[in-house]
Amino acid sequence: MQRTPATKRYNWRVVWLSLAYAALLITAVYGFKHQLVPSSLKYAVAVLPALPIIGVFVAIGRYLIEEQDEFVRMLMVRQTLWASGFTLSVWTVWGFLESFDLVGHVDGYWVAVCWFFGLGLGGLANKLSFGDTGSGC
Amino acid sequence: MENRLRLLRAERNWSQQDLGQRLEVSRQSVNAIETGKYDPSLPLAFRIAELFGLPIEEIFVSPSSRSSKAI
């Protein structure tokens, strides 16, 4: 990522959200595994690890708003389009395969994992389109 | 879009980093514009023109004028 002030803020947000994700995931897994979660809190605790991931989506949105360098912003927009197109395509195909009992069920949170992988593909596409200039995001 | 940005920058002995700082954009942005891989927005094109004290059309080559010359 280019070292603009907006990217620095974005990187810090993602670091903190990643730490929060690790902490909340460990807490939720430990709590459920050892049956420490009361019935009334099960839904809330199960959702906890999802919150930092949603936070990363928000951080990307904030980044696109805050980034003043239009070329660098365009690179990130391209990456998110790649990620969205890739994820929608993969899960559309998977949905049909699953409907016809050709593949097993996959938990929904893998959609987010797939999207982040797509973000990486978008970075690669930027590099191919713009050379070293496009290796920003 | 073809442009004379690299020439104008070289005349002033500015690096891409120098120009980027003056325009408040990254060195990568300057490189992408100079090589014609990225067309700047109108506000950025005006900032570039004002920095060099030239009209936009003396820095950027209009794609339509190029195609009409080719005809």
Attribute tags:
heterodimer; A: mainly alpha; 75% helix; flat; B: 71 residues; 434 Repressor (Amino-terminal Domain); 5 helices; 0% strand; globular
Q: Look at the helices and sheets of chain A and give the structural class.
A: mainly alpha
Catalogue the unreliable spans of chain A. Answer: none
The CATH homologous superfamily of chain B corresponds to lambda repressor-like DNA-binding domains
Query: How would you state the average pLDDT of chain A, rounded?
Result: 94
Q: How many discrete structural domains of chain B?
A: 1
Annotation field: number of helices of chain A = 5
Q: Which chain pair shows the most residues in contact? A: A-B, 15 and 14 residues
Largest sheet of chain A: none
**CATH architecture heading of chain B:** Orthogonal Bundle
What's the SSE pattern of chain A?
Answer: HHHHH
CATH topology of chain B: 434 Repressor (Amino-terminal Domain)
Query: How many individual β-strands of chain A?
Result: 0
Question: Helicity level of chain A, as a percent range?
Answer: over 70%
